[in-house]
Amino acid sequence: MDLPKLLNVSEGLAIDMLNYKKALSKDTIRILAEKFKLSQEAFNKPYKLRAQANAKTKKRRKTSVGRNLAKAS
Fold first, then answer.
1. Backbone angles phi, psi at 63, to 5 degrees
2. Angle subtended at Cα 56 by Cα 68 and Cα 41, rounded to the nearest 5 degrees
3. Are the CB atoms for 32 and 24 separated by under 8 Å?
4. Are the C-beta atoms of residues 50 and 21 closer than 8 Å to each other?
5. Of 23, 26, 63, 72, which is most buried by a Cβ count within 10 Å?
6. What is the pLDDT of residues 29-72, one digit of tens each?
7. Are the C-beta atoms of 28 and 17 separated by less than 8 Å?
8. Sign of the CA dihedral with 17 first, then 19, 23, and 28 last
């Protein structure tokens, strides 16, 4: 993998960025834009992180479990 070396980050962080688990930092966007000869705006579009989606799902599960326990009482 050349990406971790290019961005000066660990392989794990690079994988998390590629899997939408970690957001791209301003420095990362600058490096990628320069490397691929694209504008920074190309890398700066809004997107949802998968960790955020999972956190919402877990929160909903906890709430529904609490409701089920209350109904059972």
1. -65, -45
2. 165
3. yes
4. yes
5. 23
6. 999 999 999 999 999 888 899 865 555 556 665 555 565 555 55
7. yes
8. positive
Amino acid (1-letter code) at residue 23: A
**In the numeric block, which tokens belong to residue 69?**
């326990």
- How many residues are present in the chain? 73
Assessment of whether the complete model's pTM goes beyond 0.70: no
- Please state, in angstroms and rounded to a whole number, the distance separating the CA atoms of residues 29 and 40: 6
Give the distance from CA 15 to its chain's centroid.
Answer: 10
- Residue 16 neighbours by CB distance under 10 Å: 17
